[in-house]
Design brief:
heterotrimer; B: alpha+beta; Aspartate Aminotransferase, domain 2; eight-stranded mixed beta sheet; flat; C: mainly alpha; 37% helix; elongated
Chain lengths: 315, 354, 49
């Protein structure tokens, strides 16, 4: 990781010094273990603040929406796919961006690591594939592969799909991963079982909207949950309203979601809401052969029409 | 103040007696975090927690609370008349409240119970509640209560303070409500010597290593802070989610919503958050706090400046550390508080001119 | 989503296909009647505190 760090700082400082960009969007060291803070840097001296490690799970494409500046952005695989989606959806233009690509080796799951230990975690350090968690001054060794964010464990696009400059050689992509085991499990359930599973899944939700706000796809000027003329969904804690919010949010991501995992990472109560978006991602792939954000040259399946569309669900 | 000793062997028995006189609430583990919930008969509060994910403010001020009912059916005699919903305000006791959360109740009370206006739902619920606190011997690294005018053994807002001592609890009975609760529980073994508590308290306070500076906030010029140069940098990462405000034990904002089903309807009080655009949007569509930076500034200015100026009781933060540890993008109120406390507009202006 | 599959039906019917329209509506009505009233995603009075 240290070579990534040096390179990120070097490129960012250069871009700012040469006035190629007005700002660089990246991460700075957080004040808590397993947390980094998204930030912008607008002068070359401050580029030294930028960091990269396994705690950069927030998707930085989220910070590009409707910006007017010329921006350098640090992008791992999923961020780059959401940048592509942002460009396709006219939320930013390619010309405004200088994409600093980071071959990603996966982010670690802070919810999982926190839940693994009794006491409070003082420090989490990493060295290659080894993670060291310090609690009460005592070190615990973990394998990074065992504590990856769930979306990272099944990721098949770790390398940026679009970039102007890479900070390192591409990493090997994961092969033979079963991306949809959890979705198949739910698909196999009866309607009643599904209903109960989702009820249990969503019961801790406090409707803070961290999931939708961490999502780079959720950029509507007024979200449907905030509409009042008409009001689409009740604003209280009634389970029907909570569920309506989650389902509609997921449907809005159909054919657009890159499974970056920012929603789950952001959730303060640890809801695995990725099962909803993954189902739609799986359907997009199986029915349209579509994976979001891989290319600037094709329209997403839900905003285009092809005469050879199978349509076999319509009778 | 009376000090009594409760043998842990008699703890369950005491709770059983309390169940008869109070509705009991206490911390319980759910999945990988703790929350306050109603305790069934025989159920014990799980006191092995550092702090709950959400604060116990929800017991007095639920996230969604139906406050008024009405009928729209003109055949009903009292149609279109708003009728308050009867709440169960029989005595309730909350066990295992952390001192920071209890102090937070006193801060929220400044807003909901004023000489001019009272929120009847809050006031009645508070009246019905006895808070049994649990002194905090193992604070977290994100706790900074000692610098916010609170502390791990702070007594404000509590009726009883329990101090955990291996095979017993020491209970400080701080109010009449606390005395009554101890009587109902049969906790009456007096202890004379409180020296142990003092040393335990000092040891707990010494474990709190995190702090904020707030001494200068009152002297700061409000408009200078409002126009300070750091807001954009602070706010950049913010997602404008409600995690900080919903987990905060002192945030008191709510929204009213009417919901109608067929010919009957209810009015609900729902938690609201200054982080949401809808919080301030006008019916015209204009939003005076239309940008993320303005909303983030509002949250911190309210807690750390407007509140300080208005009430003169320190900041609207008890240092529980929930927003610090749960913010998805690591916006840290400790850093912001220190920035606001030490901000020097003249110096910043000079630096720009140089 | 936890909604019975028979409760939802997609169809493409041209304005000229009146017979198909009648058939589909009859079929859907029968299926939904067989399921009975919808219990899920049917909000009555808000279930909150």
């Amino acid at each position: 990781m240290s070579e990534y760090n040096d390179k990120i700082k070097e490129i960012s400082a250069r871009l700012l010094k040469e006035c190629q960009v007005d700002m660089v969007i990246g991460f700075r060291k957080g004040s808590m273990p397993m947390m980094n803070e998204p930030c912008f840097i607008n002068n070359a001296e401050d580029a030294a603040q930028l960091v990269w490690d396994s705690n950069c799970g927030i998707n930085l494409a989220n910070y590009l929406t409707n910006r007017k500046e010329k921006i350098g952005i640090i992008a791992k695989g999923c961020d780059s796919r959401n940048i592509v989606t942002h460009i396709i959806e006219n939320k930013i233009s390619r010309e405004q961006l200088y994409i600093i690509g980071v071959p990603c080796q996966g982010m670690i799951d802070k919810h999982k690591i926190n839940a693994m230990f009794e006491g409070e975690i003082q420090d989490v350090a990493e060295n290659g594939q080894k993670i060291t968690v310090t609690i009460d001054g005592k070190e615990n060794a973990l394998e990074k592969a065992d504590v990856l964010q769930k979306n990272c464990a099944v990721c098949i696009h770790r390398n940026p799909v679009i970039f102007d400059e890479m900070v390192a050689e591409p990493v090997e992509e994961q092969k033979d991963v079963d991306r949809y085991a959890d979705v198949r499990e739910i698909e196999a359930m009866t309607s009643e079982e599904k209903w109960n599973t989702f009820e249990e899944l969503l019961s801790p939700c406090i409707r803070c909207y961290a999931c939708k706000n961490a999502c780079p796809l959720c950029y509507c000027p007024t979200c449907f949950v905030d509409e009042s003329k008409p009001q689409w969904v009740g604003k209280g804690q009634d389970p029907t309203d909570v569920r309506t919010f989650h389902f509609l949010r997921a449907f809005h991501c159909g054919g657009r979601c890159t499974d970056c995992g920012a929603c789950e990472r952001a959730c303060p109560v640890g809801i695995n809401m990725r099962v909803f978006t993954k189902k739609l991602e799986k359907d997009s792939f199986e029915q349209f052969g579509w994976e979001a954000g891989l290319t600037l040259d094709e329209r997403p399946p839900l905003d285009t029409y092809r005469p050879d569309d199978p349509d076999d669900f319509i009778r | 103040m009376t000090l009594v000793k409760i043998d842990k062997k008699q703890w369950a028995q005491g709770l059983e007696a309390l169940q008869k006189a109070y509705r009991l609430f206490g911390p319980a583990q759910e999945k990988d975090y703790y929350s306050f919930k109603s305790l069934d008969t025989g159920e014990q509060p799980d006191l092995g927690f550092t702090n709950s994910r959400l604060s116990p403010k929800a017991l007095l001020f639920p996230q969604s609370d139906t406050i008024i009912e009405f009928s729209l059916d003109e055949n009903d005699e009292d149609h279109h008349i708003m009728k308050p919903v009867e709440k169960d305000n029989s005595p309730q006791a909350v066990l295992g409240v952390r001192p920071c959360d209890a102090k937070a109740v006193t801060l929220v009370n400044l807003n909901f119970d004023t000489p001019e206006y009272q929120d009847p739902y809050w006031v009645k619920a508070l009246e019905a509640t006895t808070f049994v606190g649990l002194a905090c011997d193992e604070p977290r690294s994100t706790c900074f209560c000692t610098s916010t005018g609170c502390g791990p053994y702070n007594e404000e807002g509590l009726d009883v303070l329990l101090i955990d001592g291996e095979d017993h609890f020491l209970a400080k009975l701080l109010t009449d409500k606390g005395q009554a609760l101890a009587e109902a529980a049969g906790w009456n073994t007096p202890v004379g010597d409180a020296a142990e508590i003092e040393s335990r308290k000092e040891a707990a306070e010494a474990k709190i290593t995190s702090a904020v500076e707030m001494d200068n906030l009152k002297n700061q010029d409000l408009m200078e802070l409002h126009n300070a140069s750091f807001w954009e940098d602070i706010a950049f990462a913010c997602l404008n989610c409600g995690t900080c405000t919903y987990t905060c034990p002192t945030c008191w904002c709510f929204d009213l919503q009417d919901e109608v089903h067929g010919k009957s309807g209810t009015r609900m009080k729902n938690w609201d958050s200054c982080m949401f655009p809808l919080f301030t949007v006008h019916t015209t569509g204009h939003n005076p706090r239309g940008t993320k930076t303005q909303r983030v500034r509002q949250r911190f200015m309210h807690k750390l400046k407007y509140f300080v100026d208005k009430y003169d009781t320190g900041i609207m933060c008890v240092g529980c550390g929930r927003c610090v540890s749960q913010c998805p993008v690591n916006i840290d109120i400790r850093k912001v508080c220190n920035l606001m406390n030490s901000y020097n507009a003249a110096e910043v202006a000079c630096a720009v001119n140089e | 989503m936890g909604i019975e599959p028979d409760r939802i039906h997609y169809s493409w019917i041209s304005s000229a296909e009146s017979t198909k329209f009648v058939e589909v509506v009859k079929e859907v009505t029968e299926k939904v009647k067989a399921l009975g009233p919808n219990q899920h995603f049917a909000k009555h009075e808000a279930k909150v505190a």
